[in-house]
Amino acid sequence: MAGLEDIINIIDSQQKETESRIMSSAESKVREINKDAEAKAEKAYSDYMKKAEAENLHSFESACNSVDSEMKRRVLKCKVEIINKAIENTLAKLRSQSDADYFAMLERLISRNLRNGSGIVSLSSRDLGRLPGDFEKKLNEKASAAGGSVSISKEPADIEDGFILTYGNISENCSFSAIAESAANVSATTVSVVSLCCTSCAYDMEQLINTPTLSELKALLASKTHGETLNDVWEMLSGYAPDCAELKILLYKNDFHNLKAVLKAMLSGRDPEHYYIAPSNVSIEDIKNAYTSKSTDGLPVYMRGPAEEAYELVTRTLDGQLSDSLIDAAALRAIQQSADECGNDFIIRYAQLTTVCADIKTAYRCSIMHKSNQFMETAVCGSRELDKASLIRAALSGRDGFLNYLNNTPYAEAAEMLKNSPAQFEKWCDDVITEHAETARMQAFGAEPLAAYYIAKEAELKNIRIISICRECGTDKDTITERMRRLYV
Q: What predicted TM-score, i.e. pTM, was given to this entire model?
């Protein structure tokens, strides 16, 4: 019996050991599961809190931007109300003048509009009844200096004051009411455009960045726009200011790009339409005709010289890169010259920043590629802040020497960006222009708010292109966010 008990005891002992191992393993497994669950729960909580904080921050920023935009609109509205009130007061003062002062003023206004040919001045019945006897004689003395003549119509015009000046089939209504209405319309139009500038970004960039696939991104974009392009933006702005020389300067870079496209396409036997960028001041046909006819008379003055020089250079040297560099530098010179001629401080600063950014990029590349002094003389433009000779000397000293040079200029930040990566520098260049555009946000009149709106839409549409390309390439969200350009908000 003793042997049987021993066997039972052994079995019992083994069973207890097995149970102990199983329990120990189970407890260990439970601890692992609990630990893993706690880690996952903590991560989920952390992720949720980060997402909630980001959403709250975005909501806060959106609310701030909304309030900021509303404040700007109200300030602009007040400005327009003040201007309209000033117009009303001016009309009242004009109409309360003495007869002598009133007709002296009419004489000055009519004289400014006289031109070659026979003109007819129509006045109101009240003004015809109090017309000075020598008024028509004085006007004809002024008209003869312009090579023309003028007569006073005996039929009264349907106006209260002012005049209507007619040459042939063209009549210009210069009554005080018409002038005031025109001024009021300009005021209202400007407010609508500036209001657009205050809320220029039509897209939630964070929402676009978070879209997981390219197809979903396209669907989201389609739901928010009807395929707006910069050409659409330009047509809208041109409707407000069809003859604004300052705005046309913004398109010079496209004009010169298209010049390069036509020249290359012509030499390679390709269709330049594939490389054409719109909007532009010059049609692709005008550029093609300039080369096929061997006459640049049909091009704007600022393009004629560069078009001829680039053609001569590329046909003589067969160096497409040098020809491109010549055209790029010519574009910068044209932008600066036209900006100086228009005398608008906003556009002049835009031209300076555009030139500086382009010159830094060109000189930096030349320093890396060890380009010759002769090449850089063609490729670098130069500006008031970074003169051409200094840029070339710095680039000839190599990459480090060029960056050291930049560190001692107002553009030391550009050197830092170039040290990090060319992509960061490209973003910095775009952001500098947008930052300048923001200086026009509170202006109620002039070319500045219109130019700022165009610059803002450029940045917005560029961001959309970046997001689309990155989504197509599978780029992660953080990288996309880093590449986003500053927006005008």
A: 0.65
